[in-house]
């Protein structure tokens, strides 16, 4: 009796937790299809105003330009970060010696450097270089992160040394071993690193707000944040914009969930 | 140095051995990442410190010594935003970490039904961008928002509470939002850690008659200590840098009562006539707080 009561309580707790986790997202999706009036009266069922909300949204905002910017920024940053950090993680593990270990522990200190502390000098530097409102300025500060380097270094540990020795005897160059053997065998690590980097890039807000000041260079998070700046808010079209900003990361989440959780937990190993 | 020796050295330089060549390759592999971190993190933080010793408006700066830091002590808005950051840290982080631990230990039970589904759903908020969920929570807790509408309909309230206009309810909304967004994230760390605990440990405890709470206190928490420490450091680091929530849920209001340090720095640098030196001094304080708290937590975690 006592045990069944305990089990029932466990399930109840989990159901409430799961329900609360999903509810705000459900409400967002439903509100995107409702009129502002219906949203305010607390409607929880989908309505027929999706098209109308879309027209309202597009009349005031260049949503597709912001989407394009967000995608270009996120893709470029992800591609460069994966290349630079996996190269370094591989180097730290495969060629490790005391000097390189020391460099690694110095690089780890960068984890403690907050964006708020570097943004002013970086803003001044990029504006002197004439790089305000460019993809370059968005991308560069996060192409090399200690977290990714660590992740690749940890995972390179499982890359068998025998293969490297065999390849060297066969005359494969050091660079060739990395490109032709390491990258293909480490696909799941790359997938995990990709989901994390893409999400961080897509969701980033403070740095683009500093460096991307022109209308043309606006990203999705910046665009939806601007929508609530006015006095009158049209909740239907606002929630549609929030939905559009959330959709790409939700899709990636469901497609690559296993890699995503592995990526987060990767630093625990 | 004889001629013979120098010849030997130069030939070694021109014709490095295999292991030397590999060593050089290794360093080349590290170079791009290391240079980028040096350029984008270490150089700016040194510059921020140098800048914090100067004062003036816009680009006309002059050396000022520690004057910015002295001014900082008298700045009531900065003091308030620092207090706010610490309130969020002290209230939100413990609640979230305990909740994440409880959820992880419940979901670690292999006999639990719908385990994968529960995991996915509780983890789902992590896929939402910080700005998106901030706007969702702002809309939910608006005076005319969903929460008030439901409370009035249920007969609990007669008129809506202005959640975002009272210091404590506004903070509560931000804390709720943070818990919603990050609990699943921390849970994933704990679930990964729990996988390395042998199931036989729990079986033995069960035979000894230990109930769920005793198992949680005596097995789960002690064995996960290093991971709990890691999540505590990550959360502290994140909470001291809060920006997206403060600006998008409450605009820092009412009367700066939910203003965070990052938001205040952003405001003084990019929304008013920039006082780069003063802003840099504030940002350097955040850097010191993050570094000191992270090192402190590591020390405490090591001892116990």
Topology:
The complex is a heterodimer of chains A (269) and B (304).
Chain A: H1 2-31, H2 36-40, H3 50-60, H4 63-94, H5 98-108, H6 115-128, H7 135-139, H8 146-156, H9 161-169, H10 174-185, H11 187-203, H12 206-211, H13 220-227, H14 235-255, H15 257-265
Helix pairs in contact in A: 3-14, 4-8, 4-11, 11-15, 13-14
Chain B: H1 3-14, H2 18-52, E1 54-55, E2 62-63, H3 67-74, H4 76-107, H5 115-123, H6 130-140, H7 146-153, H8 167-194, H9 199-207, H10 212-223, H11 225-240, H12 244-250, H13 261-271, H14 276-303
Antiparallel strand pairs in B: 1-2
Which strand order do you get reading across the main beta sheet of chain B?
Answer: 1-2
> How is the CATH topology of chain B named?
MetI-like fold
CATH C-level category of chain B: Mainly Alpha
Kindly report the oligomeric state of this protein: heterodimer
The helix fraction of chain B, in percent, is over 70%
Order of helices and strands of chain A: HHHHHHHHHHHHHHH
**Rg of Cα set of chain B:** 26 Å
CATH architecture of chain B: Orthogonal Bundle
**Spans of at least 5 consecutive residues with low confidence of chain A:** none
CATH architecture assignment name of chain A: Orthogonal Bundle
Quick summary of this structure?
The complex is a heterodimer of chains A (269) and B (304). Chain A is 75% helix and 0% strand.
What would you note in describing this structure?
Chain A has 269 residues and is mostly helical. Chain A has helices spanning 2-31, 36-40, 50-60, 63-94, 98-108, 115-128, 135-139, 146-156, 161-169, 174-185, 187-203, 206-211, 220-227, 235-255, 257-265. Chain B is mainly α. Chain B has a two-stranded antiparallel ribbon with strand order 1-2. Chain B is flat and about 70 Å long. At the A-B interface, helix 1, helix 4, helix 5, helix 6 and helix 10 of A face helix 2, helix 4, helix 5, helix 6 and helix 7 of B.
